[in-house]
Amino acid sequence: MSALSAPHFHNEEAAYAYVEARIWPEGPICPHCGGVDRIGKMGGKSTRVGTYKCYQCRKPFTVKIGTIFEASHVPMRIWLQAMYLIAGSKKGISSNQLHRTLGVTLKTAWFMSHRIREAMRDNSPAMLGGAGGRVEVDETYIGKKDGVTKPKGKSGSAHKLRVVSLVDRDTGKARSMPANGLARDEVAQIVRANIAKEAKLTTDESRLYSAVGKEYASHDFVTHGRLEYVRGDVSTNTVEGFFSIFKRGMRGIYQHCGEKHLHRYLAEFDFRYSNRAALGYNDADRANELLGGIVGKRLTYQTTGKA
Q1: DSSP structure string for the chain
Q2: CATH superfamily ID and name for 134-274
Q3: What does each C-alpha distance from 97 to 4, 257, 275 come to in angstroms?
Q4: Residue 274 to residue 282: CA distance in whole angstroms
Q5: In principle, which of 68, 92, 215, 221 could form an S-S bond with 249, CB 3.0–4.6 Å?
Q6: Residues 128, 204: Cα–Cα separation, whole Å
Q7: pLDDT higher than 50, residue 307
Q8: CA distances from 235 to 100, 108, 136, 165, 278 (A)
Q9: Average pLDDT over residues 61-86
Q10: Distance of alpha carbon 67 from alpha carbon 62, whole angstroms
């Protein structure tokens, strides 16, 4: 039986119950006043599915309020299908494919995808390498900056978008962010903000890490320029493996990414990598983990901006 045969993917009441059980494990909470005691579920033929009323502030609400679902007219069951498909597609799934699979417009599929990527962002991440393990760091280039063209007859990457990724080898978690300032200090600030001082910083021979590396328990690097890729347990193979998945997805599935949206695409690939099968997650686990990130991340079409 297909995983998408589950009731919450096809029945609206089951879909709401599924989300409520994960967002309100101890019962409904009024998003208007925070009340939990005097709340009742509303009935009647004209009442929307999943509507409650708080008898403290006298206001109705659903589990959608204060989440990525707020003000969306897309049925909850369709949202859950979209989340399952995006969370379970190793290299991503295009808006065109979602549009065809879910039966929504292309504009709606695009916007749903970005809301879901927003839910994949970790707003309070712990420092990587806190147990004194190895954290690999590397940078790569992809796409191109908005309004910048490659100079004719010249090589280089100044016109491309730069990404810095960090992978904690002990936990298997990945964390990525844009770093388009092309400055050494910017990369150093990313390292300091995300890696615990007791970690073993592991990079290639790039000078971007030479100064900040002195602040860590150790800074080991491999010299790719001399064809050195592994020395004992020192390598950047793990983070390069992450880049391989990221680039195949961005080039093969998404094909284009506007600079202002890069952070959301990075969140998507970080999320799936950090919750992959090798770490014990299946598709259903990943979708449930994603549901845990929907609160407090409302995104409007106007503020997202089409690109």
Answers
A1: --GGGSGGGT-HHHHHHHHHHHH-TTS---TTT---SSEEE--STTSPTT-EEETTTTEEE-TTTTBTTTT--S-HHHHHHHHHHHHH-TT---HHHHHHHHT--HHHHHHHHHHHHHHH--SSPPPBTTTS-EEEEEEEEES--TT--PPTT---STTSEEEEEEEETTT--EEEEE-TT--HHHHHHHHHHHB-TTSEEEEES-GGGTTGGGGSSEEEEE-GGGT--EETTEE-HHHHHHHHHHHHHIIIII----GGGHHHHHHHHHHHHHT-GGGT--HHHHHHHHHTT-BT----HHHH---
A2: Ribonuclease H-like superfamily/Ribonuclease H (3.30.420.10)
A3: 16, 17, 23
A4: 12
A5: 92
A6: 18
A7: no
A8: 42, 42, 8, 14, 20
A9: 96
A10: 10
Q: Give mean pLDDT, residues 41-59.
A: 92
What pLDDT, on the 0 to 100 scale, is given for residue 150? 74
- Tell me how far apart the alpha carbons of residues 250 and 256 are, in angstroms, rounded to a whole number: 7
Exposed, middle or buried by CB within 10 Å (0-12, 13-18, 19+), for 46? exposed
Please report, rounded to a whole number, the percentage of residues in the chain having pLDDT higher than 90: 81
| Identity of the residue numbered 288 | N
